[in-house]
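[recover] target loaded
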């Protein structure tokens, strides 16, 4: 259920935030597919690598801080 719910919600949010009213539906769908695909690929590359490095190199008491650093740097990189 969550797999079907999350992408549909991302599309709705992205439509509201990034598409001007003068854009056709096909242009908007193409734009959103490009953005969502690149975001999904980036997340599937970033987080497994971050979790591996976190588990192997960071002491347990500092792992939550390391995760937060990755989250914040990802947001700055995306421009959010």
């Amino acid at each position: 259920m969550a797999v079907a719910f999350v992408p549909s919600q991302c599309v709705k949010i992205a439509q509201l935030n990034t598409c001007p009213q003068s854009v056709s539906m096909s242009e908007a769908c193409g734009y959103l597919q490009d953005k969502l695909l690149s975001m999904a690929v980036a997340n599937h590359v970033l987080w497994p690598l971050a979790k591996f490095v976190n588990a192997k190199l960071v002491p347990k008491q500092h792992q939550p801080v390391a995760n937060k650093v990755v989250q914040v740097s990802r947001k700055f990189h995306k421009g959010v």
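[recover] notes: Residues 2-78 form one domain.
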